[in-house]
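Input chain follows. Return structure tokens only.
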Amino acid sequence: MKRKHDMFINYEHSYRRRRRRGGSKFGKVIIIVILAIAIGCGVYYLIRSRIDFDGLDRLSVSEDDSQEDKQWQNSLIEENSGLEQDQLTDEKNAIEKSEGQAEKITVTPSITPIEEVETAPDLLEPTPVIAKGIYVTASKAGSEDMERLIEIADTTEINAMVIDVKGDTGKISYSMDSPLAQEIGAVTNTIPDMETLIRTLKEKDIYLIARIVAFKDPYLAEQKHELAIKNKDGSLYRDNNGECWVDPYKHEVWEYLIEVASKAAEIGFDEIQFDYIRFSTGKGISDVDFGEAALTKTKEDIIIEFTKYAYENLKPLGVFVSADVYGTIISSSIDAGLVGQNYVEMSKYLDYICPMIYPSHFGEGNYGIQYPDTEPFLIVRKVLNASKEKLQQIPEGEHRAIVRPWLQDFTASWIKHYIRYGGEEVRAQIDGVYEAGYEEWLLWNASTNYSVDGLLKD
């Protein structure tokens, strides 16, 4: 702009001076030439200045857009704190770094829009349920008797079922497409049409838990001796019932369990629950040979490792992960060491931990109660209060499993001091759960004959 203005002054000065001298034709020609040059230069610089102005205008728009991108990134991080938090933060940092190096470059963030994130199946979390459930054997689930159990859920507060997928014998309860299970012949047709059963139960809003017995697997142990617990002479270890167990130190066993659990998740179960996620406590277990791994890792170490392994492999499938543990391990380090169940450490890698706090499982005098089986309300409340205190070892804010205890709906006539259990005793235990501040519970009866009169009507 300054150069254009200077040329105009020069032109005016030259033109006026020649006018005063009277001028000539030659002078007029020179004036015309100068005038033409001036006009040409004026037009040139006018166009040039307009281009520069447009460029500045576009640059300012780019900077504004960059600020909006920052705000969009920040809002996404705040609104989607549970969705790929680290990834969003990394991208935000990368954008700010690139802007610092070249401020005039507009950066487009490469994250998925909110609408797409919300509908992406692999990012959706399963919906938690305050479960009040009953155990269902594979034989009952595959028979007409299942209608009776569904009726219980229809008419009472029961809203969940724990169904055998891999039971105490090691057999799979339905035609599962598992390579190893097929190879060893573990697949059965006890539940003829699992898909239809799951669809029926889901239509009734019943929360479905797949029970998978982990290390008590006599069938796998008999078929593949290399995976079984062995005595020091190389023979198969057998518990008091003559049944074999698989070795928790064997990672091949872990892979098989995850394979079975993954198939259960695929077919529609909401939760995978591992039972017998422990070592045998039968006669002679102290003399078995667990191999070199046992020299550096305790029973608790290996069960914790498997729990973490299972959790990390199953959570991406969109299911909850839980485990059954002895109720006595909450306050007894001796029992915890024998079975390999560490209540606190396992709770760090589970969505739900399910202590079996059957009153009949506690010895005389436990928790200051002379005969625990005769005091269902008191023993349940005391054990769960101990559970609450124990889990406080996990700092606030860190992951901690929800406690969902197993309650007793059977009469333990094999112990010396027992009472007959029915609706009143079941309700007393449920009240004990609530008194301790917990909300969820499961009822166990091996024959699935439940005390319906102890349940609230729907």
